[in-house]
Please model this.
Amino acid sequence: MDEKYHPQDIELKWQQHWQATQRDRTVTDPSKPKFYALSMFPYPSGDLHMGHVRNYTITDVIARVKRLQGYRVLHPIGWDAFGLPAENAAIDRGVHPAKWTYENIARMRSQLQRVGLSYDWGREVTTCAPDYYRWTQWIFLQMLNAGLAYQREATVNWDPIDQTVLANEQVDADGRSWRSGAIVEKRKLRQWFLKITDYAEQLLLDLDRLTHWPERVRTMQSNWIGKSMGAELTFPLGQENGITVFTTRPDTVYGVTYLVLAPEHPLVEPLTTPEQAIAVAEFIEATKILSEQDRTAEDRPKRGVATGAYALHPFTGSQIPIWIADYVLGEYGTGAVMGVPAHDVRDYAFAQQYKLPIRTVIQPGDRPWTERAAYTEPGTIVNSGQFDGMDSQQAKTKIVEYAETQGWGKARVQFRLRDWLISRQRYWGCPIPVIHCPQCGVVPVPESDLPVELPEAVELTGRGASPLAQLKEWVEVSCPQCGTLARRETDTMDTFIDSSWYYLRFSDAQNGASAFDGARVNDWLPVDQYVGGVEHAILHLLYSRFVTKVLRDVAGLQFGEPFTRLLTQGMVQGLTYVNPLKTGKDRWIPSALVDAQDPRDPQTGEPLQALYATMSKSKGNGVSPVEAIARYGADTLRMFCLFKAPPEKDLEWEDSDVEGQARFLNRVWRLGYEFVHRGAQDGGEIGPVEGKTLRRAIHTAIKEITEDIEQGFQFNTAISELMKLSNALQDAKNKHNPIYTEGMELLVRLLAPFAPHISEELWAELGHTDSVLEQPWPTHDPEALVLDQIMLVIQINGKTRGSIEVPASATSAELEALALTSEPAQKYLEGKTIRKVIAVSGRLVNFVVS
Model:
């Protein structure tokens, strides 16, 4: 054993050994309880970043501890490999997306293996591989057959110069195309949707079952689903059916002074008068360049224009004007809202801006509302005919009931959640397995013909129609039902589809006959512990929950939620330099270009501000995991990621803190080296007090580390306990006895899930021929924690005056006697009369004196 710790040599040795012996292959012994530990799988962008390392190390420790505790553990990894970056790389570099993707996977797989993660690589999945997306297509067909997949027109981002559809990420903050610079337009295209709204109520109600999810995430999902109780009310249009609105405030209906349609509402064109036609057309064109976020932003002025048309107020019989406004979206609700400026902040601002009438119909109690602002609280109904004097909450029900009897409306539940648009006019995605036949309509590709593979010979330019639509030999096929010449669907699927079921595939990753075997998937699932970033709190997690429920209903899953426990780890932040005099991306100055002692902009010489921000390429504040491992070793990097902060908190990268973990592992190595090379030198019998003290430190570490892991994954405090045990061993005077040997071996066993490489090496050097990763997780001896002596606090009139060491088993009377004769008591009781003695067993004795 070398006296000096060489992490890189040790780590490479053990990684090769683990690979050769298939150390981390999933055990399928049914006699053992199962545990499924999963990190959100990465997009193969080319290199790991520190966020990956932190996420995967957290899950790795959990998986390793569970194995040691006797569980059969499934701990897999794969690649979320379809997506726009690969297609962009193909356009920019002339490299096929598949080549770019698989080269990145190979590089990142090697980097993951250098971190020492205990993955079952035999279950690796790649979503862009035909043997994976075959089953993605199969899942789509199950939804199509169940009536959950359909086509309709929807709005897309359209580049008028390149004549192509753009993803939201390809539109800059000014509404321009990332490539051509053209102002992006909104166009209607026929798109594929999944009816997630059919499961809205289930998705909402089942959040209550997810008691081991962060409350923040459950709240975010609940808000996204957005259940609202209200009413649909219809405002007649002459002989037409009328304009239907949804409202959660039917109690304010008598205060409606105008209606607002979304600019894209189908009634806008027929309702607009000739006098307003030009103004309305110009407004619609101006709205097309705005994103949905821009249109609905609370701090943005609400803009609109009158159509010149009027609707009939069904409750009052008055004529009210119909407007269009950018803040109303055609795909939310009915695409129309009623304007109640007296009782809605947004409507009030809109009415003030365009000088529309404001009619108060609710007031606070018996007094009128006189403020120049919207009154939005409950109150008493006024100016509302037969409902005057009612409490506004009661009036909601009564007004809806009255509307139902008159045929003007009905009670309704509405969800904010919209159906999932999955169409992408892209090449590098999973092809949608349907054929459009002029005779038969939409025809599903027969399951026996799956997968519908992406053609390799494709030209990617970023311009024109979907790349697949330009491949005549791929597009034109015979209809599977009637044989007529037909066309393949040329849209590909949203990549969230791929990640919405991958956790199921891991249970049976090599199955070539089905997406998964029912017995296996129902054995391993749901995932016991899922770990990933909070940025996936809504879409990925919501879509995964939806797909699980669908497959429960149509494919025999025996569970309705995919992830039992969820841990959302914090971000990794790096020291970041900002030039406050610059804007946009230019204000971030890469750390490598800055003198930390005198931070200035290398181009202008202007002073920079230093702060911690999430590591990213754009900020130039990242630290390469590959370089960190080369410098410190993987075990040190793992320990830093676990020790610096609790897993749910953000972590600030500090070289000094990384070096601190390197020093700790060097101390552990030194302890092992000294123990091994001390050999048979006998230090003599260990004293009873020293022996009990050391054994108490050993079993305290076992107890505390186990609790830290099991009660919230507090790895930082667990590592602190490892440090305490290391110090106790270092401070022991006699280092050659059975208790010290027990402590040395237990230190290595407890360290193993956190720093597996050094632990394997030390375990072997301690004389063991088996793996430290095969040892059962230790349990503490309660008797070893019992104290013989305790410190007793001496108080005079409640004020602490000292402390003494007393037997832990002493009774209250014995404590009182010992306290009375103690030096602190003698000093402060002199000349005083004791009125009362309060003895708290095991803690203190308080003398009340005068």
User: Anything to note?
Assistant: Residues 655-678 form the longest helix (24 residues). DSSP finds 26 helices and 33 strands in the chain. The chain has a mean pLDDT of 93. The first strand starts at residue 34 and ends at 39.
